[in-house]
Write a sequence for this structure.
């Protein structure tokens, strides 16, 4: 990836796309008070250099999938190849290298209430230990604030699309069109409707209607993938917390409000709360772990692992 230095306009553009990944360049340009051509050129540069992209990501709670957090201890000599193999799998939603290559942590999406595919993982000789816990419920429904703090409240209001209505408690039933459309949107969440129609061999009108329906029901979200290091945050850390059951919900909600928290969710297992912290540097991370997390009444144990690299974020690389 040939990354670029992000300036103030880039940060505002990325924030705008996080609000609505398919917002037109003309709408974004109007809110940012620049020309359409400037917005298109800036996004093209970010996309073409691999610095940022918009990916369509299904919401497992709306599509009826189970999510498993799988932690693998591995032989460092085989970490890179194993990370690539996991990233290519369609059932992995997230693959990260941790502890300088001694660990891989990933999230598997499994249809229905199915188990994680541990038998398949057991065939890799470079894996020395496997731990799998079911992700029961995310504790936050917003993005990490490091990616969403460049616009004013007025600009956010102008760009934010209508909230998803959820369309009832039952999962959204995926159609044949969805099974073709979702991978195409994972590769490029901003793909034009004619291009999507050609890829899935469906009519443009049907693709447009279904994409809007998936977004309206919350079955699909559009996520902006960008390295936190480019935003000035060099320390990313995985946290496994063991919390007293009576305080689990409260602590999860508390951590979800912290600006350092990129993700928090309740899981099965001895460590019943999994989180990702993003801080400016190692010193800031130390302060957060000791003065914030360590002082929360009800946290009995904490394990941490520094993120070394991402092999896969919200969706597969094109």
């Amino acid at each position: 990836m040939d990354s670029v230095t992000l300036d103030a306009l880039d940060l505002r553009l990325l924030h705008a796309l996080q609000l609505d990944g398919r917002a037109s360049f003309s709408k974004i340009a109007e809110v940012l008070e620049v020309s359409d051509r400037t917005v298109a050129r800036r996004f093209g540069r970010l996309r073409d250099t691999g610095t940022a992209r918009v990916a369509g990501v299904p919401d497992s709670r709306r599509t009826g999938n189970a999510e498993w957090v799988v932690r693998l201890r591995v032989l460092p000599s085989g970490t890179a190849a194993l990370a690539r193999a996991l990233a290519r799998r369609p059932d992995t939603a997230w693959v990260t290298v941790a502890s300088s290559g001694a660990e891989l942590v990933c999230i598997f999406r499994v249809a229905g209430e199915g188990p994680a595919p541990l038998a398949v993982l057991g065939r890799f000789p470079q894996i020395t230990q496997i731990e799998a816990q079911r992700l029961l419920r995310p504790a936050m429904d917003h993005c990490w604030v490091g990616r969403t703090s460049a616009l004013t409240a007025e600009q956010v209001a102008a760009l934010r699309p209508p909230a998803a209505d959820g369309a009832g408690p039952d999962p959204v039933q995926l159609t044949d069109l969805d099974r073709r459309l979702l991978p195409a949107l994972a590769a490029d969440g901003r793909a034009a409707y004619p291009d999507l129609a050609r890829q899935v061999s469906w009519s443009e009108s049907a693709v447009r209607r279904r994409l809007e329906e998936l977004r309206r029901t919350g079955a699909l979200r559009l996520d902006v993938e960008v390295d936190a290091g480019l935003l000035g945050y060099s320390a990313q850390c995985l946290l496994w917390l063991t919390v007293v059951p009576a305080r689990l919900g409260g602590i999860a909600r508390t951590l979800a409000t912290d600006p350092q928290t990129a993700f928090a969710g309740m899981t099965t297992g001895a460590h019943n709360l999994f989180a990702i912290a993003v801080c400016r540097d190692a010193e800031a991370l130390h302060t957060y772990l000791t003065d914030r997390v360590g002082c929360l009444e009800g946290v009995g144990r904490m394990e941490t692992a520094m993120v070394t690299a991402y092999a896969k974020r919200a969706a597969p690389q094109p």
About this structure: The chain is about 35% helix and 30% strand. The mean pLDDT is 92. Strands lie at 52-58, 65-74, 92-98, 103-111, 127-138, 220-226, 235-243, 261-267, 273-279, 299-312. The two ends are 13 Å apart (CA to CA).
